Amino acid sequence: MSLILKNISKTYRQGEVEIPVLVNLNAEIEPVEVVSIVGQSGSGKSTLLSILAGLERANSGEILVDSVNLANLTERALTLFRAQNISIVFQQYHLIAHLTALENVMIALEILKIEKPKQRAEEALLELGMGHRLNHFPNQLSGGECQRVAIARALVMKPKILLADEPSGNLDIQTGEKVMDVFFSVVRRHKITTILVTHSDLLADKCDRILRLEQGQLRQS
């Protein structure tokens, strides 16, 4: 899926003061492109990702996913569109403590009544190198293993667009590199349009293109 951002603006209010975060931001992401967004802390990277995911609304502007303008969707329609097309990987793993790795990956499939949830979840975990940890709980897994489960949970939905917010941020450098090597391999194998927010130049350099968020706008880096 292609992704076009037209004149996206977002402000937050602190008391009587409005603080601009995104200012008439424009960008175009090609289908199956893997793009990184870099920028200083507080530049609005996570805010932009939340808007792309439909978790937040921009104050103005348009987000076109293929021919669908997310700004025109009702909350219910946006939730359905996100479930069918967009997955998110966060810095925090957000795994459910009392569910096994397999069950954590299965749960969204079961909620949406998608066929063969166990088989699909097993396949996703196997692809992430977690076939030997299917029945382990989050507190029995390392940080790198928890993030692999979180990535499998995102990919099992077969998204058209994958958004990742500092996915290696909680991992040491060596573990992060291993996990992200698998991440890039899988998203490219499945030809998923991917937007990766990162502070790591190493990860950014592995993407097809780097965009820098400065003064509320995206610029080619």
Kindly list the characteristics that best describe this protein:
221 residues, Rossmann fold, 4-stranded antiparallel beta sheet, 7 helices, 35% helix, 28% strand, globular
Short description:
The protein has helices at residues 45-53, 75-85, 101-111, 117-127, 143-155, 173-189, 201-205, and strands spanning 3-14, 17-29, 34-38, 60-65, 68-69, 86-89, 161-165, 193-197, 209-214, 217-220.
Would you kindly provide a written description of the structure presented here, covering whatever features stand out?
The chain has 221 residues and is α/β, with parallel strands linked by helices. It has a domain at 3-93 and 159-220: P-loop containing nucleotide triphosphate hydrolases (Rossmann fold), CATH 3.40.50.300. The chain has 7 helices and 10 strands. It has helices at residues 45-53, 75-85, 101-111, 117-127, 143-155, 173-189, 201-205, and strands spanning 3-14, 17-29, 34-38, 60-65, 68-69, 86-89, 161-165, 193-197, 209-214, 217-220.
